[in-house]
Amino acid sequence: MKYKVLAAALLLAFTARGVQAEQVGSVDTVFKIFGPDHKIVVEAFDDPDVKNVTCYLSRAKTGGIKGGLGLAEDTADAAISCQQVGPITLSDKIKAGKAEGEVVFRKRTSLVFKKLQVVRFYDKRRNALIYLSYSDKVVEGSPKNALSAVPIMPWK
């Protein structure tokens, strides 16, 4: 049973959606003598299925020796803000959106078991896209989350 869970975790870790975030900037939060400092990193990514929507994530990044080697587990703290940056046209797939949403971004926040995810929902009644960011683990996730809404407006 343990091997099945480990195999599933490894498969999830290596099949994450291919959307890449671009680092916009960062600030140090804790000085570390050995290894990089703890930071808050600000990253941007474009919704892969909705042209002209850009999301900005701020998230904690653990430093120190483990962080420098990529072995540290980042905390579940993150915030998100998404903006319309041009005219939006929704595909039929999005208009028929699922109640559980669609994952549009994933980033590992530990060596194997933890990841930060962004899920998109379409609110047909209010004509808006909703983006939810949260962190999860194979066994236990975190209730910490952040939300951003993008009203679909005519572009001027």
TrEMBL record:
Pfam families recorded: CreA
Plastid found in the keyword field: no
Keywords: Signal
Keyword Signal: yes
Signal peptide: 1-21
Any one Gene Ontology cellular component term annotated for this protein: cytosol
PANTHER family: PROTEIN CREA (PTHR37952:SF2), PTHR37952
Protein name per its UniProtKB record: Protein CreA
Taxonomic source organism: Jejubacter calystegiae
